Amino acid sequence: MAAQPYDSEPVLQKLLAEYPHLLAGGQIDEERPRRWLLIGQEMGIPWEEGGGNQLSLDHLFLDQDGIPTLVEVKRSSDTRIRREVVGQMLEYAANAVTYWPVETLRARFEAKYETGDHDAIAALTEFLGDVGDEGSDVDEFWQQVRTNLQAGRIRMLFVADEIPFQLRRIVEFLNAQMSEAEVLAVEVKQYVGQGLQTLVPRVMGQTAHAQQTKTAGKRETKQWNEELFFEALSQRATPAEVDVARRILEWGKERTSEIQWGSGKKDGSFIPILIHGSTRHQVICVWTFARLNLQFEYLMRRGSLNEGQRLELLHRINSTLDTHMPDTDIERLPGISLSLLAKPGVQDAFLADLNWTLDQIAAQ
Question: Does the global pTM surpass 0.70?
Fold first, then answer.
């Protein structure tokens, strides 16, 4: 059998969509081979908040740890594969982590099952290899996708029938320099002969240094506490942002029933929990990568606030932070940088918004 180029770029794109294992998950992680869940082809990416999809990514996959894997396909005969494709991929990645709501990705995945015989939740549960409790594992998975995006924990894969040495050197450099994101190239050679076709993938870009420093993809757990949380936060945030997190924690200790500490291997979190009646209510979640999430989705699902109350809370926080979160965020978990809360006078107003929320919940 002899190596033969693909007839066209769409041929290789179609093969990847139908046979995701061609991305060689076992070569990317030998201890825990990566498995791939195709979210969509020609995935649109906006380049501004609330904007349309000005960019188009060839494929988006998620692995079993919810790490978004951006795939761009080129043939070796395309001269753009040497340098231009790198700038293209970095533009996709930079805008994806900033402007991709996880709800968009989930909706794109679930849309594939709307007219078929298979259920999206069942398909995802099968992919994860677990049997969830009324979809709880599925919700946890999508929350992990959100966390990975917010932390910039993504994977970028350049795929071609032959990877030129110029691209390989760039990939090795980027992969060694980036601590959160992983950058790799996958060469998928096609061999044809005697009426047979064989596809052989090979991963490039995993230098020894990069493999030692990468921790993405490890789904082990770690029980966080106050000391560990602030030790990790101090390494990634400014002193002002650390002060914001400490003040929110003190607020939670005073105004809520308990503090729930996360168990993520890489990212720590805490959630002030208000127990009212038989329900555990949560308004915010604070992370060691210097962001917090407003828990509108949980406020909706648990009946903590009605639609009008959630809209009122959103408008209050927009006014406090001088932000422009859309009304549709009252069903999501929008993220906010702790730096926004470090401005003079903002913390008091934000905590007043949270107090208003607790009062609304307690009044039910």
Answer: no
For 279-294, write each residue's pLDDT tens digit.
Answer: 899 999 999 989 999 9
Distance in angstroms between the alpha carbons of the first and the last residue of the chain? 73
pLDDT band of residue 122 (cuts 50, 70, 90) is confident
pLDDT for position 5: 86
Answer yes or no: are the C-beta atoms of 283 and 299 closer than 8 Å: yes
The answer to whether residues 159 and 237 belong to one domain is no
DSSP 245-289: HHHHHHHHHHHSSEEEE--BSS--EEEEEEEETTEEEE-EEEETT
Question: Residue 75 pLDDT more than 90?
Answer: no
Q: CA dihedral in degrees (79, 84, 90, 91; nearest 10)? A: -120
Tell me: do 170 and 93 sit in the same domain: yes
Q: How confident is the model at residue 209 (pLDDT cuts 50, 70, 90)?
A: low
**What 3-state DSSP class applies to 82?**
coil
- HEC letters along 241-254: HHHHHHHHHHHHHH
Residue indicated by tokens 């070569």: 27
**What's the helix, strand, coil split of the chain in %, to 5?**
45, 25, 30
Q: Tell whether 221 is covered by a domain.
A: no
**β strands within 269-351, DSSP E:** 269-276, 279-282, 284-287, 291-294, 335-337
Domain region containing 272: 226-362
194 φ, ψ (degrees, to nearest 5): 55, 40
Q: Which two structure tokens, joined as six digits, stand for 10?
A: 């769409």
With a cut of 50, say whether residue 339 has pLDDT above it: yes
